[in-house]
Specification:
The complex is a heterodimer of chains A (386) and B (76).
Chain A (H helix, E strand, L loop, with lengths): L3 E8 L10 H16 L8 E5 L3 H4 L5 H9 L6 E4 L5 H14 L6 E8 L5 H9 L4 H5 L5 H16 L3 H15 L13 H6 L2 E3 L2 E2 L8 E10 L11 E10 L14 H14 L8 E3 L5 H10 L8 H6 L16 H5 L6 H14 L12 E8 L4 E9 L1
Parallel strand pairs in A: 2-3, 2-4, 9-10
Antiparallel strand pairs in A: 1-7, 1-8, 4-7, 5-6, 8-11, 10-11
Chain B lengths: L9 E9 L12 E8 L4 E6 L9 E8 L2 E5 L4
Parallel strand pairs in B: 3-5
Antiparallel strand pairs in B: 1-2, 1-4, 2-3, 4-5
Classes of the chains: A alpha/beta (386), B mainly beta (76).
């Protein structure tokens, strides 16, 4: 295994773009990334695409060569990875593995999703396909309902409050307001979050992430070649993908995501770090409760302390450990298949010191956590300045 | 999860009331969904009929509709 660096990043804005198709979004992010790295498309040795449900959302299949070809990448392996909301996290993990193993030097990862061309009930139905259709989904669970049941149990066991969940939404909206790539650049108040309409109790509209279109890309290369590229090199210090049961009712305890815990333990060991070394993070806040639990599962705080942690402001951009300075899935947007690669983009931008108004003070070491479904796939990455 | 034999009584492990439903259940809104700790062991996702339930409440099997188990609080 050889050390791997992220040598290029690119993305599209996240949002609702009725005049854009899936391919054009993927191509824009990929070409922005290659431009950032100063690399011609013809030099890319393999293409890893993260996409959850292109065939359901827009009908197109065989997406990896479809997008790669339109970018000018041809004649090389082009493969799509599907792991629900962790699709491009998973693509990134496999791309990383192939470069670390010495199979390729220059590998492009792109995550893309085009969701807004379908009406909301149909979007919910497509997303529900990442749950257990024969059990929980058949009984009437949406993803909001699944995370609502996680939230209820967390509140019951630990005393987590509605206000603490809403604090995640308020913080992430404030961060996204400073992010030119974000879907919703709107500051909200605690009261607005608490009083918005119920989706699945105790979650309201502002506890839920957005349905978005968008794409993000990262280019990987062996660290020994990082000096060939113009940007400040960022090393993958630790990286893991793990799995767990798809259905929520197949787990002993729903207040923790075992796959995330396991991936966290692996990456800390691999990086030779502890949670105390993580200066900032992009965490998978598909619902506000998910960010709270991620801070616990990754060891930033003890189980049950994630609510007070966000409420005290520790995870704000100016706090002791900023979480989701990008605005998170909550407000930056959640084009499902693009989210994992988008998180890597955001962490690298911070490490490079290029995050503008969102720049965190300490930015040598950052973590990204990407969750698939209600926790059946987890991808955790630690990145640090080379 | 298919066998009727698994539908033993249990207690509510967690629950939610759904206001934004999948298309198929649009007419049921709002409806309560729960994960139960079954007396015989294991967990099961079910729909709740009648009175709202809370974590810890005892519930018993009421009926099955299209393979979905419906539970309710036992009559006092």
């Amino acid at each position: 295994m050889r050390p791997v660096a992220v040598v290029g990043i690119g993305k599209t804005a996240f949002g609702a773009f009725p005049d854009r198709d899936l391919r054009s979004l993927g191509v824009e992010a990929g070409l922005n990334c290659l431009k950032d790295a100063g690399v011609e498309p013809g030099r890319v040795e393999a293409f890893y695409l993260g996409n959850f449900a292109g065939p359901s959302f827009v009908g197109q299949n065989h997406l990896a060569p479809y997008i790669a070809g339109a970018m000018g990448i041809t004649g090389v392996p082009a493969t799509r990875f599907e792991a629900a909301c962790a699709s491009s996290g998973s693509a990134f993990f496999h791309a990383y593995s192939s470069v670390a193993a010495g199979l390729y030097d220059l590998v492009l990862v792109t995550g893309v999703e085009k969701m807004t061309s379908q009406p909301t009930p149909r979007v919910s139905e497509i997303l529900a396909g990442a749950g257990d259709l024969a059990g929980e989904v058949k009984a009437g669970a949406t993803f909001a309902a699944l995370f609502a049941m996680v939230a209820r149990r967390h509140m019951y066991q630990y005393g987590t409050t509605r206000e603490q969940l809403a604090a995640v939404a308020v913080k992430n909206h404030a961060n996204a307001a400073k992010n030119p790539y974000a879907h919703m650049r709107k500051v909200i108040t605690l009261e607005q979050a608490l009083k918005s309409k119920p989706v699945a109790e105790p979650l309201t509209l502002y506890d839920c992430s957005l349905v978005s279109d968008g794409a993000a890309s990262v280019l990987l290369a062996p660290l020994e070649r990082a000096a060939e590229f113009p940007g400040r090199p960022v090393v993958v210090a630790g990286m893991a993908q793990t799995s767990g049961p798809v259905a929520l009712d197949q787990r002993e305890d729903v207040t923790t995501f075992a796959a995330v815990k396991k991936a966290g333990e692996k990456v800390y060991r691999m990086a030779g770090m502890t949670p105390a070394d993580i200066q900032f993070a992009e965490l998978h806040d598909c619902f506000t409760i998910a960010e709270v639990i991620a801070t616990e599962d990754l060891g930033f705080v003890k189980p049950g302390e994630g609510g007070p942690y966000v409420e005290r402001g520790c995870t704000a951009i100016g706090g002791s450990r900023p979480v989701n300075p990008s605005g998170g899935l909550k407000a930056k947007g959640h084009p499902v298949g693009a989210t994992g690669a988008g998180q890597i983009f955001d962490v690298v931008e911070q490490i490079r010191g290029q995050a503008g108004e969102r720049q965190v003070k300490h930015h040598e070491v950052g973590l990204a956590q990407n969750l698939g479904g209600s926790g059946a796939t987890a991808v955790v990455t630690i990145l640090r300045a080379a | 999860m298919m066998a009727e034999t698994t539908y033993s009584p249990g207690s509510v492990y967690t629950e939610t009331v759904v206001w934004s439903p999948p298309e198929a259940y649009a007419n049921d809104v709002p409806y309560q969904l729960a994960i139960l700790d079954l007396d015989g062991g294991g967990k099961l996702t079910v729909r709740i009929l009648g009175d709202r339930v809370q974590i810890g409440d005892r519930v018993t099997f009421a009926e099955s509709r299209n393979g979905v188990p419906y539970y309710r609080k036992p009559a006092a």
